[in-house]
Amino acid sequence: MQQMKLPAHLQSSWQQLGIAPEVLQQKSLCVFAEATELVDVETTFDGRVWQLTPEAADAWLRMQAAADADGITLKIASAYRASSRQVELIQRKLDLGQQIADILQVLAPPGCSEHHTGRAVDIYQPGGPVVEEAFETTSAYAWLSQHAATFGFTLSFPRNNAYGYVYEPWHWCYQSN
Ligand SMILES: [Zn+2]
């Protein structure tokens, strides 16, 4: 699933965004293979469909149901994302005048986002903070801390993680075995 070398098809998008190839080693990043098989998991109020791999989708739905039974509603803020989409997200921030080094603290370079795998989900609780550190103060986060591992989901970016990313209490990844 992971490799340490930047594949040729990503080199041009990195160059276009001004990301040096050395960033891969400097930040100890991995290149993730993009999911090839995806299923629809959740549709947002504005008609956007979130997808995960069949295995991750199954685990997510079981975890969501278990949380629901405990009175906790878990919703998806982001799931599968293609590397081409990652290019768009970074480009949008560059267009707003942000520096690439700052952008890379919150967004992975194309090819290096766990969301490419179709196994990562950004989770929120309706009415609560979305993709913000304050998510850790929600009852949803407390529930996940206690139960997510049972369903195969782990927190990818704890405080002071080795990748130089900000702390992401909302980002959980299903680890296939
Ligand atoms: Zn995420």
TrEMBL record:
It comes from the Bacteria. GO terms for biological process: proteolysis. InterPro entries: DD-CPase-like, VanY-like_core_dom, VanY/YodJ_core_dom, Zn_M74/Hedgehog-like. Residues 51-175 form the D-alanyl-D-alanine carboxypeptidase-like core domain. GO terms for molecular function: peptidase activity. This is M15 family metallopeptidase.
